[in-house]
């Protein structure tokens, strides 16, 4: 094949495992690029040759057109990445992952970094010839609009291009974290570039044709519960002994009192039993899975302990700067292959050098454990002793919650180690969080990709019971990976004994376990305000039961031990002559914190609306739930917040300029004011909406333009504000009349409630008309309606002119004015919500006062009534202006 002549000339296929390529390419493959391009493939391969670079390849005319990109692709618009054009490669090269021998052309490791489909904009051959090729990517890491632009050709040099991301919803606003750094793993095997070539001669095989590599496929999804830098298949165990069964804790409502108990911090990580034998260590999950390869650094430090044979029990965690452990931080560390972040907190000692310690009292086992760790190398910082306090259970629990820990574990001081769950070990949580079985998923709505929500269940005596759905807590990339994995587990019948009903439901084998945080259960057993935390592949689905807290055992007392290995506790013992006073029950908001979408929210129990008893935690959970719908309508816009730090019944104030350091999820945008440029508040990520709640914000108001083009609005808003005596059906009728008039002008509009008695009619437009044009256009529409029936309508703001009329307010369309954002709560009784509604739904029967932070999340199961808004390409044209404005008016369109 002539197109591959240069490729084949440079390679000795008796030495390199690279594919030679087919001799003949079907006509369909050669010609399909001239059509839509839907079948075309793109590949990005990370190539550690003499210099690390990324090979960007686009299928065209039966080959892979190829460019070498030294720094790799960037998601930041404006980042110009050098791309040197190289020889065409065969289509089969898109499946290659392995090692090119040293001395051969391009010698080094090749990793399949991303792959998917691409769609050219226009004729791709013409684009390549002219030196400007635009296209859309649909990969696992790269998405949206991209462009290749050829630079001026120099004599004797290879053609050089620039690869750039175009501005769209997949672009990133800044370069704080490069996609090639945050996602270094292979999309096929999950390995890192450093791991390619470790298996010797086997690397001469392609990963796509090697069954073991397919079985070992680790993606972003697997990284939730395992390191994507290592294969998920269980490695061969060093130890040949049977895996010991761990002791488990029983959930109780409160910590036990009395000196018969010792209390430890409950860590937020992976439970692991470490078996040391013959100078090697094996790490086992609570279900007996061998995860040594996933935690090689920990296993190495455990093996270095001064002991020949041993069994230890503990938890593998990542400790954050504030001293807390975080399951999410653990997942991120594993995904980035940062083993140095791992810590193994050991809290029990089962066996040492052939001596079984399990029958000894817990205190004696912990004393032996502390002695062992004291004998170890001080530089061995990953293996640490899990300290404890004696007695004072309720006080220790309050202190743990105050420090935002997951909870505590209370253990009987004199009890032996017994596998399974018993009353000798008790756990007390600071917030609701447990494992659920995944029994299905729903279709995504609007611009969301992958899946809409996971359908959750728990095992009971009569089968798997449905417990609701979770649709927040995972990124779009994770949702896509999760969808792919679940589709491979699909079944025809629901695994639940009481399955939900509705459209777009898919059922799967109940084998995967999701860890979910939530604010409690409803009376019918459904989770309230759930948020996905990760997959728990270390726990079998059959053990996913509903955690039902029990009453703690009665207080027990025991004299102080001869030696207390846990005396270095964070809570000091009171002196013997001054016995501790009975604990005073503190309100939840004083002792607890919660996390929603990874954002810490303090005082979640604080009541912000006395009438409905809505709390700050309820509001944060609401924002986390609707973030996927709300964020696209506030992203990049200057904001105006109504802050009510102590609740809506106390002092509230508006704020648009930042006054304190902002959370990482928030941002500032620069806006030109009369006195110069000023920073305005904005949100960087969906989690930023929760950060606004933490700031005390109750209402979110937005500009009609985005900060990158502040003078070019993309929304026109008609605010219908009825007088007190105007019936609701009249307001509904007016909204429909405005919609009809706009349709006559060729403009599509959308409706939403305002959170009160009014309505908003919103018209999306392409950015082009200036503020004056938008204001004059909307004002002319409003004036036209008022002239038709001045007894029913007005454009005058004065209250005496609004009696018995509906104010059609178009002042929201002036520069600097704001309007309440879609899905924003309102500082009103019941904490109502400004809710998007479908035109078919907007009837006199609609009750906007029932749309509150408690009820609106249920609407997310329906189709998004504003789903098509971002795809609308209409604008205010000259012909529209001529139809509605006086001929003397002049505007910039």
Folded structure, characterized:
There is one protein chain. By secondary structure, this protein is an alpha+beta fold. The longest helix has 19 residues, at 616-634. The strands form nine sheets. An eight-stranded antiparallel β-barrel has the order 1-2-3-4-9-8-7-6. Strands 21, 22, 23, 24, 25, 26 and 27 form a seven-stranded antiparallel sheet that branches. The protein is globular. It is built from 17 helices and 43 strands.
Quickly list its features.
about 900 residues; alpha+beta; 8-stranded antiparallel beta barrel; 7-stranded antiparallel β-sheet; 43 strands; about 30% strand; globular
Return Rg in Å. Answer: 31 Å
Name the average pLDDT. 82
Measured distance between first and last alpha carbons: 53 Å
Strand order of the largest sheet: 1-2-3-4-9-8-7-6
Gross morphology: globular
- Could you list the spans in which at least 5 consecutive residues all have pLDDT below 50? 23-38, 198-240, 556-591
């Amino acid at each position: 094949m002539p197109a591959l002549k240069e490729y084949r000339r440079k390679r000795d296929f008796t030495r390199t495992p690279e594919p030679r390529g087919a001799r003949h390419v079907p006509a369909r493959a050669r010609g399909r690029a001239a059509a839509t391009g839907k079948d075309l493939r793109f590949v990005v391969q990370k190539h550690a040759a003499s210099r690390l670079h990324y090979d960007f390849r686009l299928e065209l005319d039966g080959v892979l057109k190829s460019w070498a990109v030294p720094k790799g692709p960037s998601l930041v618009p404006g980042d110009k990445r050098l791309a040197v054009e190289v020889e065409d490669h065969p289509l089969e090269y898109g499946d290659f992952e392995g090692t090119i021998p040293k001395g051969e052309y391009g010698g080094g490791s090749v990793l399949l970094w991303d792959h998917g489909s691409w769609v050219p904009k226009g004729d791709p051959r013409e684009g390549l010839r002219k030196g400007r090729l635009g296209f859309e990517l649909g990969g696992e890491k790269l998405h949206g609009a991209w462009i290749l632009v050829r630079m001026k050709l120099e004599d004797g040099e290879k053609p050089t291009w620039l690869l750039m991301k175009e501005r769209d919803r997949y672009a990133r606003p800044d370069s704080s974290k490069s996609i090639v750094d945050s996602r270094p793993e292979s999309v096929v095997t999950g390995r890192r570039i450093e791991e390619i070539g470790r298996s010797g001669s086997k690397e001469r095989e392609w990963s796509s044709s090697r069954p073991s590599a397919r079985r070992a496929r680790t993606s972003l999804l697997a990284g939730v519960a395992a390191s994507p830098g290592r294969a998920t298949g269980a490695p061969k165990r060093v130890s040949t002994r049977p895996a010991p069964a761990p002791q488990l804790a029983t959930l109780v409502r409160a910590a036990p009192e009395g000196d018969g108990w010792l209390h430890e911090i409950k860590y937020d990580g992976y439970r692991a039993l470490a078996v040391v034998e013959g100078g090697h260590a094996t790490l086992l999950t609570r279900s007996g899975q061998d995860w040594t390869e996933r935690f090689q650094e920990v296993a190495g430090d455990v093996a270095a302990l001064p002991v020949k044979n041993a069994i230890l029990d503990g938890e593998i965690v990542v400790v954050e700067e504030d001293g807390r452990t975080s399951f999410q931080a653990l997942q991120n560390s594993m995904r980035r292959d940062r083993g140095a972040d791992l810590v193994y907190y050991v809290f029990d000692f089962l066996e040492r050098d052939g001596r079984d310690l399990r029958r000894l009292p817990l205190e004696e086992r912990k004393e032996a454990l502390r002695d062992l760790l004291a004998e170890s190398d001080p530089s061995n910082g990953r293996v640490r002793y899990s300290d404890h306090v004696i007695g004072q259970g309720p006080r220790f629990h309050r202190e743990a919650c105050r420090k935002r820990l997951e909870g505590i574990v209370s253990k009987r001081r004199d009890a032996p180690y017994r596998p399974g769950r018993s009353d000798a070990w008790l756990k007390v949580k600071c917030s609701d969080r447990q494992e659920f079985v995944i029994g299905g998923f729903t279709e995504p709505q609007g611009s969301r990709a992958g899946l809409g929500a996971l359908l959750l269940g728990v095992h009971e005596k009569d089968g798997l019971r449905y417990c609701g759905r979770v649709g927040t807590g995972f990124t779009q990339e994770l949702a896509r990976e999760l969808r792919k994995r679940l589709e491979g587990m699909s079944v025809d019948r629901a695994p639940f004994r009481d399955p939900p009903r509705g459209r777009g439901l898919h059922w799967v084998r109940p084998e995967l376990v999701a860890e979910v945080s939530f604010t409690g259960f409803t009376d019918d057993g459904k989770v309230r305000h759930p948020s996905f935390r990760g997959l728990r592949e270390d726990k079998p689905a059959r053990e996913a039961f509903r955690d039902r807290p029990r009453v703690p055992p009665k207080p027990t007392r025991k004299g102080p031990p001869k030696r207390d290995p846990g005396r270095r506790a964070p809570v000091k013992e009171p002196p013997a002559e001054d016995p501790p006073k009975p604990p005073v029950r503190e309100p939840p908001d004083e002792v607890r914190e919660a996390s929603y979408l990874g954002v810490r929210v303090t005082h979640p129990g604080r009541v912000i609306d006395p009438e409905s008893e809505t709390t700050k935690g309820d509001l944060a959970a609401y924002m986390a739930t609707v973030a996927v719908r709300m964020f696209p309508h506030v992203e990049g816009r200057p904001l105006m917040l109504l802050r009510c730090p102590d609740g809506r019944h106390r002092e509230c104030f508006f704020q648009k300029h930042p006054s304190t350091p902002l959370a990482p999820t928030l941002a500032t945008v620069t806006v030109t004011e009369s006195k110069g440029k000023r920073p305005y508040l904005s949100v960087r990520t969906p989690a930023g909406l929760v950060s606004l709640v933490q700031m005390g914000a109750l209402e979110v108001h937005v500009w009609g333009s985005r900060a990158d083009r502040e003078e070019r609005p993309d929304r026109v808003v008609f605010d219908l504000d009825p007088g007190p005596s105007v019936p609701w059906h009249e307001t509904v009728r007016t909204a429909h009349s405005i919609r009809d008039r706009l349709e006559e002008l060729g403009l599509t509009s959308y409706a939403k409630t305002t959170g009160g008695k009014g309505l908003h009619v919103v018209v999306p437009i392409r950015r082009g008309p200036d503020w004056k044009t938008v204001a004059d256009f909307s004002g002319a529409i409003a004036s036209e309606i008022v002239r038709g029936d001045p007894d029913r309508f007005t454009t005058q703001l004065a209250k005496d002119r609004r009696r018995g009329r509906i104010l059609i307010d178009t002042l929201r369309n002036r520069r600097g004015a704001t309007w309440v954002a879609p899905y924003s709560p309102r500082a009103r009784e019941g904490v109502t919500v400004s809710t998007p509604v479908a035109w078919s739904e907007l009837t006199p029967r609609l009750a906007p006062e029932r749309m509150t932070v408690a009820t609106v999340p249920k609407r997310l199961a329906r189709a998004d009534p504003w789903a098509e808004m971002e795809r609308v390409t209409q604008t205010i044209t000259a012909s529209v202006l001529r139809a509605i404005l006086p001929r003397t008016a002049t505007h910039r369109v």
